[in-house]
Amino acid sequence: MRVDGTPMRTIWPVAGRRVGIIDQTRLPHEFVTLELTTMEAAAHAIRAMLVRGAPLIGATAAYGVALAVTADPSDAALARAIEVLGATRPTAINLRWALDRARRRLAELPPGERADAAWALAAEVADEDVGINAAIGRHGLELVKRARKGDKPVNILTHCNAGWLATVDIGTATAPIYAAHDAGIPVHVWVDETRPRNQGAGLTAWELGRHGVPHTVIVDNVGGHLMQHGMVDLCIVGTDRTTASGDVANKIGTYLKALAAHDNGVPFYVALPSPTIDWTLDDGVKEIPIEQRDGGEVSLVPGRLADGTIASVRVTPEGSPVANYGFDVTPARLVTGLITERGVASASREGLLGLFPEKRGA
Ligand code: MRU
């Protein structure tokens, strides 16, 4: 992604063993970068959603371990970093994937060699994410081409932000969209606002706009109506965790979009980087832990006032209880296909194993 003409990732190492990030809680109103200097700061950035999106959470955790072992390379400090970072957000499996990888790589090294190895590993995780997303873009581009009717723009609906901001670069669900736009295929994106934190309205709309992709923000309940009226050719969403059988956890509300797509014969694809597959799980509805966040995210909506100040306004009565479920699970039977870096698979164990045969019997 280019920001003010310069290619930029969403996380980067800074000289002196610090880590640069974009504070996503300030978007779309302000573009602010800041530096993480401690493992605790990295954990806070994930927990408070300064960085978010499954792949970026994984990359931030890897850099968090690097910050930890730079300060203290002992076994105890490594174990504590993995525990603290691992407890930040429960649903995105990329977090555990990155921390398991760090543990395997670093635990066997003498403490004196751990810092260099941890920074190299974090860079590796980040670079891999970019390569994976580029490949998802290439495979997804074919689906966008297939969905085109005559010379009309392809209308794609997406939920939440599975874009550049949710990854190290490019995005997952947005990768086919950017690839199509860059290839001169006209696309128009319906952007679900994605309450309560409005990642669609605030983040997806912001990054699509910067890339010049035509889009329209809609409130969360509009998708079904649009599909009934033939105004959506294709849905592409991201995922925080997908089971070995193809059940997909993603931002709350994804399931309802998949139901509407199924009822209206609209293809529903999930962009799935392989680190987001949880090969240990089978039944997503029963087994994937669903994050519940602070109720203040439901009752207080932040925004920019007419005078330019950023403030939160209350939209519920004082004292009304609220519930804030962060994710839901879309059963595999509602998913048309999984767009991975190795190609498009059916949402099933056999489909995934066809692309990842090394996981057979694992
Ligand atoms: O709560 P968030 O903003 O971290 O949720 C993000 C999503 O649900 C994304 O769709 C998912 O992480 C995939 S990101 C490529």
UniProtKB/TrEMBL annotation:
<feature type="binding site">
    <location>
        <position position="89"/>
    </location>
    <ligand>
        <name>substrate</name>
    </ligand>
</feature>
<keyword id="KW-0486">Methionine biosynthesis</keyword>
<feature type="binding site">
    <location>
        <begin position="250"/>
        <end position="251"/>
    </location>
    <ligand>
        <name>substrate</name>
    </ligand>
</feature>
<dbReference type="InterPro" id="IPR042529">
    <property type="entry name" value="IF_2B-like_C"/>
</dbReference>
<dbReference type="InterPro" id="IPR000649">
    <property type="entry name" value="IF-2B-related"/>
</dbReference>
<comment type="pathway">
    <text>Amino-acid biosynthesis; L-methionine biosynthesis via salvage pathway; L-methionine from S-methyl-5-thio-alpha-D-ribose 1-phosphate: step 1/6.</text>
</comment>
<feature type="binding site">
    <location>
        <begin position="52"/>
        <end position="54"/>
    </location>
    <ligand>
        <name>substrate</name>
    </ligand>
</feature>
<protein>
    <recommendedName>
        <fullName>Methylthioribose-1-phosphate isomerase</fullName>
        <ecNumber>5.3.1.23</ecNumber>
    </recommendedName>
</protein>
<dbReference type="InterPro" id="IPR027363">
    <property type="entry name" value="M1Pi_N"/>
</dbReference>
<feature type="site" description="Transition state stabilizer">
    <location>
        <position position="160"/>
    </location>
</feature>
<comment type="similarity">
    <text>Belongs to the EIF-2B alpha/beta/delta subunits family. MtnA subfamily.</text>
</comment>
<dbReference type="GO" id="GO:0019509">
    <property type="term" value="P:L-methionine salvage from methylthioadenosine"/>
</dbReference>
<comment type="function">
    <text>Catalyzes the interconversion of methylthioribose-1-phosphate (MTR-1-P) into methylthioribulose-1-phosphate (MTRu-1-P). Also catalyzes the interconversion of 5-deoxyribose 1-phosphate and 5-deoxyribulose 1-phosphate. Part of a bifunctional DHAP-shunt salvage pathway for SAM by-products.</text>
</comment>
<dbReference type="InterPro" id="IPR037171">
    <property type="entry name" value="NagB/RpiA_transferase-like"/>
</dbReference>
<dbReference type="GO" id="GO:0046523">
    <property type="term" value="F:S-methyl-5-thioribose-1-phosphate isomerase activity"/>
</dbReference>
<keyword id="KW-0413">Isomerase</keyword>
<keyword id="KW-0028">Amino-acid biosynthesis</keyword>
<feature type="active site" description="Proton donor">
    <location>
        <position position="240"/>
    </location>
</feature>
<dbReference type="Pfam" id="PF01008">
    <property type="entry name" value="IF-2B"/>
</dbReference>
<feature type="binding site">
    <location>
        <position position="199"/>
    </location>
    <ligand>
        <name>substrate</name>
    </ligand>
</feature>
<dbReference type="InterPro" id="IPR005251">
    <property type="entry name" value="IF-M1Pi"/>
</dbReference>
<dbReference type="InterPro" id="IPR011559">
    <property type="entry name" value="Initiation_fac_2B_a/b/d"/>
</dbReference>
